[in-house]
């Protein structure tokens, strides 16, 4: 084929009728046809995409709902024992603290007892310089001897006066003129005077004896003796220290008797709890406590006293409660702080739920429709309380019973919460007894909303 000539076979054959599309239709009509074809193609693409979206919409919606569905933390209900306690703190003290003082003054010349020493009644603890008091005893003994000598001399004079009076009376009976009336009177009253002197001498002897007893007692007080058997928990005197008892009785030692047999714990209990404490005392329930010195050991005691003398501090009324506990190993020392748990009630083999399950309050959207009225009722109660109206005593007592009627929540298959009405009983720091309600051991109860995963 010569250059510049085209192959007849490569030429486009004319459409049927011998004319092209452009030749058969005008320009505007051709544009409408092309536009319709484009729209049909677009609709076909949209239909394909819509079908694909419809096919995946339901799984996607289910995945999104599952992803945003709240997750809850749960704990299982159990069957076991519940012990209700009231906690308090107290101070450990001896049953009795005997303060040993000094009755007389003077320097300490002997010290025979020390801290923590065990003494018996009558043991010598300390000595005060006795020289001054010995001298006073010697003086009072001499004074007593002088008074007794005066009594003997007065007795002799009285005997002489009586004889003279007897002779004067006898002489007057034989011869009245031989003795005058004045001589008779003188003899008589001389005898009466001597009898009075005898009485005075006897009184002087008693006074001297009393002075001697006082001085001997003061001499005895220079020896400080243990008034009771016990342990010396404090010593407040040093050797050579001078005591001045005329101003204030100085305290030398403090002795605690029977520390091994019994110690006391003094606690303050709030007035709201004192009724339960009294019931625990009447039923003889034990009390457990611990001290920081022995953190792994639990001690036991009993309620000895509930004293009636209340104490008010910042409008809080408390009552002193005294506990009694043995102390054979002397582990409990005076002044220790005791963490006390009063056992006021006990239930064995009951269904109990975690305290967090009773405290849980769900969001309205997380609760199934049938149980949302529970939340509405709670809101109304809160609104009533917000008005600040003070209820009567009977209403308070009724409200106290209503407080025990609560709800616990379980997760349904659809992820929503269902409320279970229960009546609570006693509780401890972990769980609360369920008196009535459709709760079974092992049932998972909601205690909170779990955090979402990123």
Short note summarizing the structure:
The protein is α+β, with helices and mostly antiparallel strands. Helix content is 37%, strand content 31%.
User: What is the SS-derived class?
Assistant: alpha+beta
Strand order of the largest sheet: 2-11-15-13-12-16
How far apart are the termini? 76 Å
Number of strands: 20
| Mean pLDDT reading | 84
Question: What is the H-and-E element order?
Answer: HHEEEEEEHHEEEEEHEEEEEHHHEEEE
Cα shape: rod-shaped
CATH topology of the largest domain: conserved putative lor/sdh protein from methanococcus maripaludis s2 fold
Instruction: Identify the CATH class of the largest domain.
Output: Mainly Beta
User: Residue ranges: pLDDT <50 for 5 or more in a row?
Assistant: 1-13
What would you report as the Rg, rounded to the nearest angstrom? Answer: 55 Å
Number of H/I helices: 8
> What CATH architecture of the largest domain do you see?
Beta Barrel
Q: What share of the residues does DSSP label as strand, in percent?
A: 25-35%
Largest sheet: 6 strands, antiparallel, barrel
* Total individual domains: 5
Percent helix: 25-40%
What does this structure look like?
This protein is of the alpha+beta class and 454 residues long. It contains eight helices and 20 strands. Strands 2-11-15-13-12-16 form a six-stranded antiparallel β-barrel. The protein has a four-stranded antiparallel β-sheet with strand order 3-10-8-5, with no helix packed on it. Helices cover 37% and strands 31% of the residues.
